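User: Here's a structure from my thesis project, written as structure tokens. My advisor, Dr. K., wants to see whether a designed sequence matches the one we expressed. Can you design one independently, without my sequence as a hint?
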């Protein structure tokens, strides 16, 4: 396998940039993602002006970022989502907004979407608003609150509690907020301080999506000797925490070379790291979206990798821990919990041979298992799930000669 594969633009950057552009009242965004999650974000921001029913479908960032935006703009109506979204908790964000004066209630189950907004503008007490927010469920609540911080009369101070997961996404939020003219800094004792003063219009070019790049790393890791792939539009200095895939995959047989002038990366094959390095537990707390990719590659290579920091996977598009386990079992591998919070890839009789991989309405299940096509015939159910983050995924695979039945 060899060639160039186009990545989608980062959906995390795109969805933040769209919200910040709206709050700033301008700025030109280039290379926005074509993913459904981003198309949806853009559509809901526009529709909010004319409708009282919005549907965030299965997009976590859209549900959480729109909740904060609708609260700060005094919108009146109901924000709903797909069946799975109604099982993804949102109380931490709602309680934070309620403490700032929002009138939001639960239209169905307490603590979960859909949400009803009464249309009352936020009325934080005079001075800087201060909230304590748990950081161990989803960083998206924190990003959502931070992004409306500059629009509050006294700004906002968040004190984060518990073990903070997905921290690079909070840093990405702060970086993009500063790009749009806000003053926002992480301070001592897990506090984050956002000064009042709003945003200024700014232009921004979205980087390629490093989470999507992970599937190409997996393909190179599992491809015949001599395979290589070029991925344009990735930068050596990235705001996306998932750029750590370049270090993780170095151990699993893929080297990354950055092309001159920010033109992207070139992936080639290298020998696996020594076994003793590969059996150290790898912590996915900061990069949960990479866990499925890495689990599948390790299983296919027969590496008894240990994975930690997976708890947030249970409340994403599906229970991703259960989904990985069930699908690996079809292939002669498994990922049991061998100690509290530590999962181990066990791969005794790994074979790819016409299995049907279920995808659980989760784009990352489809894309993480697809690279196994390098090792034998394999079917992926409901391939259209990739539209959430990478609509052209199957097309790009076909362009380098990888076609699943
Ligand atoms: O802020 C973001 O753009 C995201 C944060 C992460 O979610 P959690 O903070 O819920 O772990 C990640 O899994 C998701 O795909 C995108
Ligand atoms: C978890 C994800 O998305 P979200 O939480 O935005 O739905 C993801 O893309 O893997």
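Assistant: Designed independently from the structure alone:
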């Amino acid at each position: 396998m060899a060639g160039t594969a186009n990545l989608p633009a980062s959906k995390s950057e795109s969805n933040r940039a769209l919200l910040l552009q709206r709050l700033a009242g301008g700025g030109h965004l280039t290379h926005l993602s074509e993913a459904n999650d981003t198309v949806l974000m853009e559509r809901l921001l526009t529709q909010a002006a004319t409708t009282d029913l919005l549907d965030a479908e299965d997009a976590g960032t859209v549900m959480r970022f729109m909740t904060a935006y609708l609260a700060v703009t005094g919108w009146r109506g109901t924000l709903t989502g797909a069946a799975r979204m109604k099982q993804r908790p949102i109380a931490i964000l709602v309680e934070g907004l309620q403490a700032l004066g929002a009138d939001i209630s639960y239209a169905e189950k307490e603590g979960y979407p859909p949400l009803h907004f009464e249309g009352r503008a936020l009325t934080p007490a005079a001075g800087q608003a201060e909230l304590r927010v748990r950081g161990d469920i989803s960083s998206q609540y924190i990003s959502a609150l931070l992004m409306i911080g500059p629009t509050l009369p006294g700004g906002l101070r968040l004190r984060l509690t518990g073990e903070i997961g997905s921290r690079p996404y909070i840093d990405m939020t702060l970086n993009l907020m500063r790009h749009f003219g806000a003053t926002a800094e992480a301070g001592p004792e897990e506090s984050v301080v956002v000064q009042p003063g709003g945003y200024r219009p700014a232009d921004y070019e979205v980087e390629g999506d490093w989470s999507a790049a992970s599937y190409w790393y997996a393909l190179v890791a599992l491809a015949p000797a001599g395979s290589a792939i070029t991925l344009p539009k990735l930068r050596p200095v990235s705001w996306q925490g998932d750029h750590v895939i370049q270090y993780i995959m170095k151990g699993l047989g893929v080297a990354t070379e950055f092309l001159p002038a920010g033109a992207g990366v070139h992936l080639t094959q290298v020998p696996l790291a020594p076994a003793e390095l590969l059996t150290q537990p790898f912590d996915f707390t900061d990069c949960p979206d990479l866990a499925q990719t890495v689990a599948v590659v390790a299983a296919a290579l027969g590496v008894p990798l240990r994975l930690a920091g997976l708890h947030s996977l249970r409340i994403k598009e599906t229970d991703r821990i259960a989904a990985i386990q069930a699908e690996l079992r079809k292939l002669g591998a498994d990922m049991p919990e061998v100690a509290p919070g530590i999962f181990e890839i066990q791969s005794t009789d790994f074979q790819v041979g016409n299995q049907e991989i279920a995808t659980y309405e989760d784009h990352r299940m489809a894309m993480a298992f697809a690279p196994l096509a390098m090792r034998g015939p394999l079917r992926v159910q409901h391939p259209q799930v990739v539209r959430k983050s990478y609509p052209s995924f199957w097309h790009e695979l076909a362009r380098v000669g990888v076609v699943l039945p």
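When you compare it with your expressed construct, this may help: The first helix runs from residue 11 to 24.
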